[in-house]
Design a protein that fits this description.
alpha+beta; two-stranded antiparallel sheet; about 35% helix
């Protein structure tokens, strides 16, 4: 006697991620390119070289943004808390060069900044000084609790000094930020970089964080298609528009 197959359930099953996998293997199998895609509803994953590490630049601000929001959500911190911008904020493992991107003064000004303003500037402008102050006070200079929390999410230690990270690690962290259902997602939907990379040619909202350094150009995003998905693209020695092309190709399958 033959097995009974419910055809209705077969046709409803979302197997578009397999088409994404085929697309990536056909078009984007090359050196210096790592891609991670995960549909949040089905939890299915596609990608190429997504477990290979690369210098992540400002993508490594994501664990700090996540961890600060976690403490706001559990009541340890409040968005209205204020923190002093002093010399020590740039002298710990995990701090960025203050001379990089962002609008806060590059030299300590002895002023207090609210946690919300710091989170917003780090998320929207990729402000290095805002990140440093956040990390100094909000993670107690990248302390053990911070590292343990992030390790539970990404399955390994996130090296905040050398910043060697895989697209998959960044993707798992973006998924965790999505799961928090906090204000950070809205901040990441309104960045100074929304006209480039993953959101560039998409007609739907995108929450994303870019990373740039020398020959490295990255983007990590939640794409709010009908069925939301995480997309992370890490590149080395590629033109920036490649990320936008990859994003559009994937969207055309998953929209």
């Amino acid at each position: 006697k033959g097995e009974y197959v419910a055809w209705s359930s077969l046709s409803k099953e979302d197997n578009r991620i397999q088409r994404v996998q085929e697309l990536l293997e056909q078009k984007y199998q090359e050196e210096g390119l790592g891609i991670y895609v995960k549909q949040l509803e089905t939890q299915q994953v596609a990608g190429v070289k997504f477990d290979q590490t690369m210098y992540s630049a400002s993508i490594t601000k994501l664990p700090y943004l996540y961890y600060v929001q976690k403490q706001v959500l559990d009541g340890t911190l409040k968005w209205t808390d204020t923190f002093l911008y002093k010399k020590e904020t740039e002298d710990y493992d995990g701090a960025y060069d203050p001379a990089g991107t962002g609008s806060l003064p590059k030299e300590p000004d002895g002023k207090n900044y609210s946690l919300k303003e710091l989170e917003e500037k780090a998320a929207k402008e990729s402000d290095n000084v805002a990140h440093n102050i956040l990390g100094y006070y909000g993670t107690d200079s990248s302390n053990q609790d911070f590292h343990q929390e992030i390790r539970q999410i990404v399955g390994q230690t996130w090296d905040v000094v050398d910043r060697e990270v895989s697209p998959q690690m960044a993707g798992l962290l973006m998924e965790a930020i999505y799961g928090q259902q906090g204000e950070l997602v809205e901040m990441l939907k309104q960045t100074n970089f929304d006209d480039q990379r993953i959101p560039k040619d998409l007609p739907v909202p995108v929450a994303h964080k870019i990373g740039d350094a020398d020959d490295f150009h990255h983007d990590a995003a939640i794409v709010f298609a009908k069925s939301p998905y995480v997309l992370v693209v890490f590149t080395e020695n590629k033109e920036m528009d490649l990320i936008a092309r990859i994003s559009k190709d994937i969207y055309e399958v998953l929209k």
